[in-house]
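Exercise 7b. Backbone tokens:
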């Protein structure tokens, strides 16, 4: 599996190419299925939703409640299985703010599942929408996206694009070249996948705090598949091309402007892991961006530890999303919907935009 600068073994090249191509096909390739444009990961997710059906809200409630219980216990008692595992330490040994959010998410989930407590918590417009609609989808998306994410992370795809596209991404978006894969995964595939990919890269020291925030707020916003769902919902499918062209243009311009103004420009430009991958964008003398990227990609693929480690890494991603992200979605999402449904705060926040919308001759501005 060892390679030199100008010579690579066939097995090392295939170790890079095959998983990377499979990852691109699964995560970034829109296809037509049952009359709709989607991606293979979403199709697999749909199969899983059909398989588990109405039991998914109960499963998610159990996972969210279990997460809150273990997190609270771990705060006061040294649990051996947590203390011996860096992964479980990072998952359950969290800041007090996250403990409160996880407990709140568990309370909201239990109240919603059994329809107990104030109706404004579990109604169809608040907790019910989160638990029965959104989390039902995220349950299966998190499973397949997390399980198969190592295809994008562990076999050199990011290293190749990181070297080749740095001179494009850095001046335009203030980002390293490897973020182009996050961009493609978000815009062509699914924004959730882009967020997961960005989070893992930040935790491994490839992005600074500012870069991760830029990607999460400018790239992982809207995908082509989600745009199709929205425009179909409002009965304007025949106008998809001008609609999505507008989305692309607006997203591109925003992605150029936002990193250069507060609050993103004031985010700390520091790494989660210091001295980890800060020299990743330097192209050594004698290499072209492509040859260096290809060399780095082969080296990365050659270090992969086999199928067992692939599923271990994927399983950790799934648990991280199910137990680390789902409780936050339930807690913060329910709170936001309670505020939006039962208070006028969002109407007040929208008032300053009314004159702008009227200036643009947009109907029903109010």
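Sequence design result:
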């Amino acid at each position: 599996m060892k390679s030199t600068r100008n010579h690579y073994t066939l097995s090392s090249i295939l170790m890079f190419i095959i998983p990377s191509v499979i990852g691109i096909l699964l995560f970034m390739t829109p296809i037509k299925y049952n009359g709709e444009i989607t991606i293979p990961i979403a199709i697999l997710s749909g199969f899983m939703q059909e398989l588990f059906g109405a039991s998914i809200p109960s499963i998610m409630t159990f996972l969210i409640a279990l997460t809150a219980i273990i997190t609270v216990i771990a705060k006061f008692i040294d649990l051996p299985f947590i203390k011996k595992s860096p992964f479980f330490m990072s998952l359950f040994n969290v800041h007090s703010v996250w403990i409160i959010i996880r407990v709140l998410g568990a309370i909201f989930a239990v109240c919603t599942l059994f329809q107990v407590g104030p109706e404004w918590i579990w109604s169809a417009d608040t907790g019910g929408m989160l638990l029965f609609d959104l989390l039902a989808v995220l349950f299966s998306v998190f499973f397949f996206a997390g399980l198969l994410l190592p295809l994008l992370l562990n076999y050199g795809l990011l290293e190749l694009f990181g070297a080749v596209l740095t001179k494009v991404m850095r001046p335009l978006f203030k980002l390293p070249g490897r973020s182009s894969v996050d961009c493609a995964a978000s815009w062509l595939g699914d924004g959730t996948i882009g967020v997961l990919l960005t989070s893992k890269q930040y935790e491994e020291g490839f992005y600074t705090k500012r870069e991760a925030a830029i990607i999460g707020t400018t790239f992982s916003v809207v995908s082509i598949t989600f745009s199709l769902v929205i425009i179909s919902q409002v009965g304007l499918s025949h106008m998809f091309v001008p609609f999505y062209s507008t989305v692309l243009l607006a997203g591109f311009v925003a992605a150029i402007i936002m990193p250069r103004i507060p609050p993103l420009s004031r985010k700390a430009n520091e790494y989660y892991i210091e001295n980890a991958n800060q020299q990743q964008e330097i192209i050594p003398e004698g290499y072209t961006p492509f040859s260096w990227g290809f060399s780095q990609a082969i080296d990365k693929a050659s270090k992969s530890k086999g199928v067992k480690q692939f599923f271990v890494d994927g399983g950790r991603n799934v648990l991280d999303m199910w137990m680390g992200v789902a409780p936050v979605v339930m807690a913060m999402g329910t709170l936001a919907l309670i505020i939006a449904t039962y208070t006028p705060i969002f109407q007040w926040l929208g008032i300053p935009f009314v004159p702008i919308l009227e200036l643009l001759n947009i109907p029903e501005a109010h």
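Instructor comment: Residues 307-342 form the longest helix (36 residues). Strands lie at 31-33, 36-38.
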